[in-house]
Amino acid sequence: MLKDNPLISIVALTWNTTEVTVDFLRSINEQNTYKNIEVIVVDNGSREDPTAVLTAVYPAIKLIRNPKNLGFTGGNNVGIKAATGDYLFIVNNDTEFTPGLLEGLLEIFAQYPDAGIVSPKFHYFFHKGTIEYAGYNTVNMFTGRNGMIGCREKDEGQYNDIKVTNYAHGGGMMVPRKIIDEVGGLPEDFFIYYEEFDWCDQIKRKGYKVYYQPKSLIYHKESMSTGKASAFKTFYHTKNRIYYMRRNAPKAGLLVFFAWFTFITVPKNTLTFLLKGQKAHLRSFWRGIFWHFNRSITFN
After folding, report:
1. Are residues 172 and 270 in the same domain?
2. Could you tell me if 43 and 108 lie in one domain?
3. Is residue 258 part of a domain?
């Protein structure tokens, strides 16, 4: 049983996306129907101080400025440490709330004692009515990749049942404080990408489950900070794809993955980047691989 009206800490990052964050805060003002909240925004080393702009939109905001970009993991961990809520809703700043979002997520913890983390249904902000996320398939042991359930499908109610899923969506996930105290914060070596998969696996190893709550809906603008395709993404996707598998795949599965990656992924991606003249992507791809031999290697 949940205590009545528990405090929810909403934790979001901003990084050179002040106007996007303004829209996010306005959506909380205008659409959020659960009132016992604190809003924590962590500025992850933006070029310009967003304090005046953000506090004008949401005066009660708790704004923390990091001196440098600590990534999705490190930045959110700063917010997690500052949070005082019984439940934390870790959410992207390129999302917008809908009425009943937080109430629906809380209901999961009231109904399912084994719940460790829950995500809402995601629709694309610019294509409302089109699903982005209705749960996650498991990561494929050959490729180290997976897909979102329902992605790009028109929402006709086909995913309107609560269910246990493999992973939460990193763009919006509610976690009880007691679970974070038990498992720890987001794994910071990931910096960005794959970190929510690893975190969910850690939570599942403690005996909890990951839930999808279709009653709660959030709109996602998608990749507003990093861009949809960039050398930055190539580096972190490559590095963390391998890192996730090293940390979470069973030994037999890891051997299968390494064989696939070595003989299929490496030649295919190398040739593709060469043929397309994408030298920055090629460099990032190989730097992502070599990080596993020398952790001092960075994207830059």
Report:
1. no
2. yes
3. yes
The answer to whether the beta carbons of residues 203 and 183 sit under 8 Å apart is yes
Angle, in degrees to the nearest 10, between helices 279-290 and 266-275: 160
Provide φ and ψ at 89, rounded to 5°. -110, 100
| DSSP state at residue 228 | S
Q: Are residues 150 and 268 in the same domain?
A: no
Question: Do 151 and 184 belong to one domain?
Answer: yes
Please name the residue that has the structure tokens 């999961």.
108
pLDDT per residue rounded down to tens, the chain (300 residues): 567 899 999 999 999 999 999 999 999 999 999 999 999 999 999 999 999 999 999 999 999 999 999 999 999 999 999 999 999 999 999 999 999 999 999 999 999 999 999 999 999 999 999 999 999 999 998 899 999 999 999 999 999 999 999 999 999 999 999 999 999 999 999 999 999 999 999 999 999 999 999 999 999 997 655 556 799 999 999 999 999 999 999 999 999 999 999 999 999 999 999 999 999 999 999 999 999 999 999 987
Same domain, 81 and 140: yes
**Please, where are the H alpha helices in 112-230?**
177-183, 195-205
Residue ranges making up the domain that contains 14: 8-220
Which secondary-structure segment (H or E) carries 272?
Answer: helix 266-275
User: Counting beta carbons within 10 angstroms of the beta carbon of residue 64, is it exposed (0 to 12), middle (13 to 18) or buried (19 or more)?
Assistant: middle
**Domain co-membership, 97 together with 119:** yes
